[in-house]
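To: structure desk
From: M.T.
Subject: fold request, one chain
Message: Could you run this one when you get a chance? Sequence is below, nothing fancy, just the single chain.
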Amino acid sequence: MPPALGHAEHIPESLRQPLGPRWRQVAEVIRRRIEDGTYPPRTRIPSVVEITAEFGIAAVTAQKVHKGLRAEGLIYTEPGLGSFVAEQSAKPLE
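Reply: Done. Structure tokens follow.
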């Protein structure tokens, strides 16, 4: 079950500046949730509004999170329904 939305999650120290823009840090948190099964394939991920509330970031920053994850092929968006975790092929552990 995903963590309750509305409870601010702190970005781990290892993901804080100077490692990059805030949207990349938040995208990494979502990416890790996808990888660890918190958000399984075909399940909805937090909306832009929910990401904004959870991480205390601007809506435009949360939109960049979704855009980045879509560009990586990790999520897809169904208009009017939300964004969902894409099916992933099995990846070897590095």
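Reply (cont.): The two ends are 26 Å apart (CA to CA). Let me know if you need anything else for the meeting.
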